[in-house]
Amino acid sequence: MTTKALKEVLEHAATWPVEDQNDLAEYAREIEARRTGVYTMSADERTAVGRGLAEADRGEFVADETVAETDKRDDN
Question: Are residues 33 and 67 in the same domain?
Fold first, then answer.
């Protein structure tokens, strides 16, 4: 895809629903990470990681039984 074609796609993407724009941004971050070896989290991902770390700091973890049950379902 040429720079011109990429610009055209981005212009059209500006009219897409927010969910589709977010998907496109995620794909672009993944491509950039593959090319550079550096992944840049989105604001939503950064928030989710912060929440997870705060839960861990408070000692809030998923029960071992729940994890074991999930592992069993993944094997099928």
Answer: no
